[in-house]
Amino acid sequence: MSTAALMYLIYLGTGWLGVPESHRMQVALWGGGILSVLGALAGFLLKTLPQAGGKTGNSPSRKPTIPQGRFTAGFSGDDLRPTEGGRNNMYCRLVVGYADAKSDVTSRIIDVQAFTVAATPDGEVVPYNLDAYCELRKAQRNFRADRIVECKLADAEDAESDVKDLMATLMAAPATTICDNQTAIIRPIAMPDLVLDYMFRTPNYRRVNIRPVSFGYTERSRGNRRERTLLFIDGIAEGKTQQQRFRTERIKSVWQAGHENPEGNIAALFLPGQRAD
User: Fold this and answer.
1) 29 vs 57, higher pLDDT
2) Are 149 and 162 in contact (CB under 8 A)?
3) pTM for the predicted model, two decimal places
4) d(Cα 9, Cα 32) in Å, to the nearest integer?
5) From the CB of residue 163, how many other CB atoms can be counted at a distance below 10 Å?
6) Per-position DSSP letters for the chain, written without gaps between them
7) What is the mean pLDDT of residues 47-57?
8) What is the pLDDT of residues 175-195, one digit of tens each?
9) Are 132 and 111 in contact (CB under 8 A)?
10) Are 233 and 179 in contact (CB under 8 A)?
11) Angle at CA of residue 82, ends 81 and 84, nearest 5°
């Protein structure tokens, strides 16, 4: 409605209200002007306040959505249907770029200990939920695989650290077991036979030849370096057919087959670069 029309209506209204004729025109002029200003202000506010759907007339653009589903065959959210599968008692150390519900991406170093899987609409089985220790949060956390936008092997020292197939990487990760109330990472090994002076029963040691099959160790962060501690060797003793576990705390000395001198650092045989205690 125009300002002139507002003034005319106010002039008529003042007559109905009994305003003296000498004041009617003055009230109409002031009232019409004020209402026009208020109307213009209301129109401006309506353009700047959020409209239906969350959009604004002059508001800055919203943060772009981070593409998800890179490691889940291009699907994410409700398109993924949890199904049977996955692994428990495992160890896989990863560096991931992780997008939260607000699409904020943070870099995390995580030690995956278990994961579940889901089926895509195409029937492909992909990683779904990763149960892992997060070094950033210093606590156990769950990570949705569809929200992982980047992924690398944390311990890789070459250019092949980028993970292209997260499912294959998780399935190939080493298993873990509990040894002396510690979580030990188990890795297979192929190496020459060893000769051990081993304490089968306290306090006597007996010399035994074994063929190592695997070994178990712990791994933890100490400042900026990773500390590894050898806990046991799994192997088959000479004359036996069943695999046995030989704990390092019970090993007095160890020789490589055909060597005259014992090894000074047992851990270094299995964990390259590991210093003697």
Assistant:
1) 29
2) no
3) 0.73
4) 9
5) 21
6) --HHHHHHHHHHHHHHHT--HHHHHHHHHHHHHHHHHHHHHHHHHHHHS--TTS--SSPPPPPPPPP--TTTTT--GGG-EEEEEEESSB-EEEEEEEE-TT--EEEEEEEEEEEEEEE-TTS-EEEEEEEEEETTTTEEEEEEGGGEEEEEETT--SGGGB-S-HHHHHHHSPBEEEETTEEEEEEE-----EEEEEEEETTEEEEEEEEEEEEEEEEEEETTEEEEEEEEEEEEETT--S-EEEEGGGEEEEEETT-SSPPS-HHHHHSTTPPP-
7) 51
8) 999 999 999 999 999 999 999
9) yes
10) no
11) 130
Tokens of 275: 């210093």
Structure tokens at 141: 């956390």
- Record the tokens describing residue 157, joined without a space: 């020292």
Dig out the tokens for 65 from the structure. Answer: 């959505």
Residue with tokens 């030690």: 111
Question: First-to-last CA distance in the chain?
Answer: 90
Q: Do strands 176-179 and 148-153 pair parallel, antiparallel, or not at all (unpaired)?
A: unpaired
